[in-house]
Amino acid sequence: MNICIDDNRHLRKFFYQYASSQTEILCDVRERLPNLLNQYNGKIKPVNHARYQQQRVLEYKVVVDGNMACRVAFTVVKQTITVIFISEVLIKAQFCKLLAKTTLLD
């Protein structure tokens, strides 16, 4: 699968704030996420009523070293995963509200 990291201000701000964890987060996205998608794992959940470029938005949680965790929002089109949003907010309902406040969704 191809992994694409969207170039938006939300991701730039997140990676600026958590620069020390950027490598581990991106490694998890590149290695673990495709495996979870292939296994239809319950760890990947849809974000209710969320569309990005008319594609359904999904999310999952990344744990980095036990010190830091975040949620990642992404879309899947054919063989391409596009990461659109990452937040340190772990509670799904709050994460979804935060994502809805952005201009990323249709």
Describe the protein:
Helices cover 33% and strands 38% of the residues. The relative contact order is 0.22. The longest helix has 17 residues, at 22-38. A hairpin with a 2-residue loop joins strand 4 (68-77) and strand 5 (80-87). The two termini are 25 Å apart. It has one domain. The chain is α+β, with helices and mostly antiparallel strands and 106 residues long. It has helices spanning 9-17, 22-38, 92-100, and strands at 2-5, 45-52, 55-64, 68-77, 80-87.
Write the layout of secondary structure elements.
Layout lengths: L1 E4 L3 H9 L4 H17 L6 E8 L2 E10 L3 E10 L2 E8 L4 H9 L6
Parallel strand pairs: 1-5
Antiparallel strand pairs: 2-3, 3-4, 4-5
Rg result? 13 Å
Give the N-terminus to C-terminus distance in angstroms.
25 Å
Domain unit count? 1
Q: What spatial form do the alpha-carbon principal axes imply?
A: globular
| Class from helix and strand fractions | alpha+beta
Low-confidence stretches: none
Biggest sheet features: 5 strands, mixed
Number of strands: 5
The helical percent reads 25-40%
Total number of helices? 3
Q: What pattern of helices and strands is seen along the backbone?
A: EHHEEEEH
Give the integer mean of the pLDDT values.
92
Considering the chains and any ligands shown, give keywords for the structure:
five-stranded mixed beta sheet; 33% helix; 106 residues; single chain; 3 helices; alpha+beta
Write a compact overview of the structure shown:
Helix content is 33%, strand content 38%. The chain has helices at residues 9-17, 22-38, 92-100; strands spanning 2-5, 45-52, 55-64, 68-77, 80-87.
